[in-house]
Design a protein that fits this description.
255 residues; alpha/beta; Rossmann fold; 7-stranded parallel sheet; 8 helices; 7 strands; 14% strand; globular
Length: 255
């Protein structure tokens, strides 16, 4: 994916605030494959959740990625603000240049079911998981200047809906937006795919849940962030160009 002048391509990854998260694993994999990186994150969300947040995680991740030769810039972005996607692209382009691949691994997820979901919670899930993703995809499509066939959009989704209604519903909307972009951006040479990585061990599961998920997975283990990162790296490579407009289940098989 290197350009004709030998410059490293640039990938924008959202949701890269935790070193044990999927976004961080994707960043490591792409850095090793020769990409420079723009990492957006929003630590106040992690701090509000049971798994918490380490303030140094993003800085430590940047230093780790730089050892792979990647130029890495960090962008704290509250994606509930509808103006932030455009501002993010403005900042990335002014500091690092044109984005060649965008990986949407951010999310907002607070459990509630049909009866207990509030309007405010429903709206916030859709603002972050669906609206912000649409606006980021729109900016990417408007600004893409890469060679035909080199552009990549990849988003992470989930089919967890029952008991987690606003999260699952907003992820369903995300799926449709990404798959639409595969068709609408075909003349720009941008591929767009969605990955459902299944239940991935990023520190949010207790031991009982880990056992339950391990028992129903055909591979007889939990998914790791690296499992998802491996697929993202393939899709971002020249070898992954033929895969387009797909919702891919990469979850070890769920029995």
């Amino acid at each position: 994916m290197f350009s004709a002048d030998g410059r490293r391509p640039l990938a924008l990854i959202t949701g890269a605030s935790r070193r044990i998260g999927i976004g961080a694993a994707i960043a490591r994999s792409l850095a090793e494959e020769g990409w420079d990186l723009a990492l957006s994150y929003w630590q106040p969300y992690d701090k509000s959740m049971p798994w918490g947040s380490r303030d140094r995680d993003v800085e430590e991740l940047r230093e780790e990625l730089k050892l792979c030769g990647a130029a890495v810039h960090l962008y704290p972005v509250d994606l509930s603000d509808s103006f932030e996607p455009e501002r993010l692209f403005d900042s990335v382009e002014s500091e690092q240049g044109s984005v060649g691949a965008m990986i949407l691994s951010h999310c907002y997820s607070v459990d509630s079911d049909i009866l207990t979901t509030t309007i405010d919670s429903f709206d916030r899930h859709f603002a972050i998981n669906a609206r912000a993703s649409w606006l980021l995809i729109r900016e990417f499509g408007l600004r893409f200047r890469g060679n035909p066939g080199s552009g990549r959009i990849i988003a992470l989704t989930s089919d967890h809906t029952a008991g987690n209604l606003p999260y699952g519903a907003s992820k369903g909307a995300l799926d449709r937006i990404v798959l639409a972009s595969a068709v609408e951006f075909r003349d720009k040479g941008i591929t767009a795919n969605v990955i459902n990585p299944g239940a991935t061990d990023t520190g949010w599961m207790d031991d009982n849940l880990k056992k339950i998920i391990g028992d129903i997975t055909l591979s007889q283990r939990l998914g790791t962030p690296e499992d998802c990162a491996n697929l993202v790296s393939f899709l971002c490579s020249e070898k992954g160009q033929w895969v387009n407009g797909q919702l891919l289940y990469s979850n070890g098989g769920i029995a």
